[in-house]
Amino acid sequence: MKYQILEAFKVKTSQGEMELQPGQIIALQSEKALKLLSEGKITPIEKVAYKVYSEILQAYLWVVDTDDDMHSKRSQGNEEAIYTRKEIAILRKLPKEYLKDIHQIKRVFPMSTIEEIINKVKAENDIGENEDRKSKGKIEDKNATETTSR
Question: Which CA distances in Å does 20 have to 13, 76, 93, 132?
């Protein structure tokens, strides 16, 4: 299959090491392309979907390029969770213990899309800080241009 390079990277070939540049087109076998796809270094030129087994999730899942590809794959009757490459890039940054919960959501809501992951601990701390400021009589409204007092 053919892929377009999105981000420069080095490869070892029978002729030595070479650096591939953004915009170049290369041909790779699917197994070799998976890691580069998940790292966002290449993109398929043709429409493609990968069915992979996740050891962490103990389940098969599909990886597609876009939301439209996800909807198309779902309409073909696939029951496994389907993720876009963008979602996989987001998930790769998370601790492994979060992945099972997110995967469960994808299974319950099959047409859902991961847009953003908010760290629950950070969100709770932010709420706690605001509550603490309120109790002291001051809170800063991030949309306002000045600090208000009560």
Answer: 12, 36, 25, 53
Which run of H or E residues covers position 2? strand 2-5
Tell me if the pTM is above 0.90: no
CA atoms 4, 5, 11, 14: torsion sign? positive
How many Cα neighbours within 13 Å face the side chain of 143?
Answer: 0
3-state helix, strand, coil in the chain (%, to 5): 35, 30, 35
**Model confidence over 14-71: pLDDT tens digits?**
889 999 999 999 998 888 888 888 888 998 887 778 888 989 899 999 999 888 888 8
State the Cα–Cα distance between residues 117 and 3, nearest whole angstrom.
29
For residue 134, report the phi and psi dihedrals to the nearest 5 degrees. Answer: -60, -40
Which residue ranges make up each domain of the chain? 1-8+24-46, 120-149
Question: What is the rounded CA–CA span in Å between residue 14 and residue 124?
Answer: 53
